[in-house]
Amino acid sequence: MADANLPTATPTETRCARCRAALSESDRVTAEDRVFCRTCYDILKLELRRGVATMSEDINYPMAALGAVLGGVVGVLAWWGFTVLTKIGFGLVAVVIGFLVGQGTARFARGKRSVGLQALSVAVGVLSFLVATYLVNMTFINETLVQRGESWRVTFPPATLDMFYKVVAINFGIMKLVFLGIVAYEAWIIPRPVKLPKP
Description:
Layout: E1 28-31, E2 34-37, H1 38-54, H2 61-86, H3 95-108, H4 115-148, H5 161-169, H6 174-189
Antiparallel strand pairs: 1-2
């Protein structure tokens, strides 16, 4: 039998994580591991929506383009440099192009995000991949020409668009398409706008 003189435990009072007001059962909203009053929860929701909206406003597209191009140049040089040093045209290295272009776009846009930035990033990523493919193929073609004793070389930049197309098209099979798809996906996903769940 329980002793009637022992003190009974009182339930701890739940308080709002923001304003510290005591909460009743009807006035509490749970978000992740915190509990808020309805007023504070609505204020935080509004601030979050406003913050997300400003991420797609006042975008400096020239700076974003500069960041994308710089990322593309570094990615192209990484793939081409790997090929020159190892004598292996390892296409998986090309995946770094999409990452660097996407990062360059987002960083030079000062963390801004928009569909316009995504389109810019993908365009620069795809173009960078094609330029890198040209350089890698050019390297192997020129090595073959040297072995054959030929005096002419494939040049960079290419003399014509037709020459660019023909050099890029060499060995452009399913794996190159897969790598190109990965480059485009990474360039698209990094500067994507933040989407909040609908209330």
